[in-house]
Structures are given as C-alpha cells and as structure tokens.
Amino acid sequence: xxxxxxxxxxxxxxxxxxxxxxxxxxxxxxxxxxxxxxxxxxxxxxxxxxxxxxxxxxxxxxxxxxxxxxxxxxxxxxxxxxxxxxxxxxxxxxxxxxxxxxxxxxxxxxxxxxxxxxxxxxxxxxxxxxxxxxxxxxxxxxxxxxxxxxxxxxxxxxxxxxxxxxxxxxxxxxxxxxxxxxxxxxxxxxxxxxxxxxxxxxxxxxxxxxxxxxxxxxxxxxxxxxxxxxxxxxxxxxxxxxxxxxxxxxxxxxxxxxxxxxxxxxxxxxxxxxxxxxxxxxxxxxxxxxxxxxxxxxxxxxxxxxxxxxxxxxxxxxxxxxxxxxxxxxxxxxxxxxxxxxxxxxxxxxxxxxxxxxxxxxxxxxxxxxxxxx
Length: 374
Hints:
Layout: H1 11-15, E1 27-31, H2 41-57, E2 62-65, H3 79-87, E3 94-101, H4 107-120, E4 125-130, H5 137-144, H6 149-154, H7 156-168, H8 187-190, E5 203-207, H9 210-219, E6 223-225, H10 234-244, E7 256-264, H11 268-286, H12 296-301, H13 306-316, E8 320-322, H14 324-338, E9 342-346, H15 352-365
Parallel strand pairs: 1-2, 1-9, 2-3, 3-4, 4-5, 5-6, 6-7, 7-8, 7-9
Helix pairs in contact: 2-15, 3-4, 4-7, 9-10, 11-13, 14-15
C-alpha cells in the first residue's frame, strides 16, 4: 500500500486547489465508473485505478466518485468502497464522493465510512453530499426502506447538521445522540492515551438547482454544481451561491467547482462518435431503458426518432469534445463564462482506454507536469 503520511493542513487548504500548467483553474476528475457493452464491472474498476494514478501523476487536483444505483452502465453504487481501493493505489491526490446521496443513508453510517477513509488516507478525503436519490423512485424507496422520498429531500438540512455533528463529535449535552460517537473520529483523541488525526473530511454540497447553492452559501461551505447535466442552471446557481455566501470557519470566500462533460481524442471525428454513443446511453436512461454504454458502432446504426435526435443534439451541445486543443478552448470559455474556481471533468465513453487517453490529452494541452509517483 502507498505511504499516506501527510502534514497537517487547514480545512480551507484542503478545499482550494492550485491551477497547474496553463489551466485557468485546478482541474479534477469525476468518475462514474462506467461499464461499456462487452466489458465487465471488474474492468471498469481497474480503469478507475489506472485513471486515479494517471490523474495523480499529471497534476489533477482531486478524484471523485459518484453514487448511482440500478444502472447497468454505472458501477459506482458504493463510493466509499471504491475510494478505499483507490486510496491504496495513490498517495497524493485528493479522493472523495461526488457525491454521497445523503437521504439514502443514515448520517452516522456516512460519518463512520468517511472517518475510516480519512484514517486510511489522512488529509486527502472529501465528503461531497447530494440530496437527490441518484436513481429512480422505486430504487430510492428500496434503499431507504420508505416510500416517503420527498421527506428525505426536505429533511436534507437536518440530516446535514446531524452528519456534521457526528464528524465533529459535538452533540450538545442532553441530545439523544450525545453519547454516540462515529469511530474512527474525534472521540479517540479524548480517550485515555488517545491520539487523533488533525484532519476531518471537508464537507461539500452538490446540486443541480438553487436549493443546495443557497444552503452551501448560507453555511459557508464549498459548492459543486452539476453543469454536465443541468447546464441551463449553472450561472444562476453559482450567482445564488455567491450572493448567499457567509464566511465560516471552513471558508472565508466562496469556492465553487463545476462538473463538466469533456472528451478529447486524437481525431475530431472520433470524439463525435464517442459522444454520440454516450448520448444514446442517456436516451435509454431517460426513457426507462438503462443499460451498458453502447459502442460507437451501435450508436451509428441506431435510428434516432426526431424527439430522440433533439435530445441528443441538446445534450451534446453541453459536452466539450473534439481534439485536445478544441477541448482546452471550450473549457477556457466555460470557465470565463461561469467564473468557476475549479473544473471537474467527467469523460463518458464506451471504453476505458478512450477515457484514459482523454485525460492524458487534456493534461498535455494545458502543459500539466508529469510527477514522480515516489
């Protein structure tokens, strides 16, 4: 296992990244651990390890894994498990959830899971939280053992407060949970002979609308917006976050990243083929037919209906794709338009090799340094 020793840093230092090369902001990775037709989840998880190592050596700032359920083409149903595996194969890059869908889980469970991850990789863990189910209503009901799905979303601020108190071990006297402790966690430092890590995973709020933007701003937390599937709401949500922001012990100024679908290939035509296949996958998902990510050849042979073609064209308009130079230009323009403090790139393609090549090409286009893994 890699050496995970780390010097003490402030939580703010853990949040803010450093732009490298000629990139306008820090660049990061969002991985859905996609599974293409003809491939297995095992292969996709191996690609995740390769990609996390590539991202680390090429100077990407953080690597997040998204929580999704009941989708054959997405193998990231258990972010904490995947992150533990990635922690064993990396030594510097920040690792986190993008995000854990908090209403699906008891806050104590999340505090325990991410306290364990923090113990495995001190000072490198992010806890990104969302309030959506990350799946359809029936699957969400099975996860939560309840059909009161709206209640889960509406209770998000309360769940967030409870999770934060478990992470900090600071329930007030008289609270029903005052004698309950998330372990690993701060309680270990107050036990006889106890020594506790100075780190605590910073909490991020994720969103695709204004709710989490306002809440993140009010609480002074960092905010991650899902531009990759809610592009029309990006600028309004970021504006709302900045307007709502109140300085906190975590941040003195707003810090917002946006998730961006970006795919670079050696040939512009190949980028279009790959993006079309990913769009067909989204068509099937949106029409209740989720499956494995189809091959470009299958997408080329597919007869899109007029409505499907309209969806695909609209979807692909928000995917930054093409040659490395074209992707660099598109990302630069997007950053200028949104003022995002960080760009988190997700590459949706049928094969792991295409995804790995995309991140390498983007790193080259920005002149990101190649770092020694030692």
